[in-house]
Amino acid sequence: MAIKDSEYLSRLQNYYAKHHSFPSYARLCNVLGLAAKSAVKKVLLRLGEQGYLQRTIDEVWIPAERFFERKVSDAPVAAGLPTFVPDVTADPFMIDQFLIDKPSKTILVPVQGDSMIN
């Protein structure tokens, strides 16, 4: 992925996390820091070719599966204290695919107590 495309993807991911949708091409100019709607279209097409975006039957851009990949550091850290993690170089993965077989049967349960401390 080109460095700029990585930046554009990050901006789209942040926008989507906050608004749960993508705005119009005109608004995407501001979100992506581009001057023209034609430039936005080129970015969306490139991200689509890479599997991060897809179009619905109504030609609306939506996140594709890879849009939700998370970066993974290949540098292990010790449990406990916060630790700086150097640049990420490992391949990203989708945490849902790693942890969840049946999303409809999966719930998150809050944990009480201090069993993970010390």
TrEMBL record:
SUPFAM superfamilies: LexA/Signal peptidase, Winged helix' DNA-binding domain. InterPro entries: LexA/Signal_pep-like_sf, WH-like_DNA-bd_sf, WH_DNA-bd_sf. Gene3D superfamilies: Winged helix-like DNA-binding domain superfamily/Winged helix DNA-binding domain. This is LexA repressor DNA-binding domain-containing protein. It comes from marine metagenome.
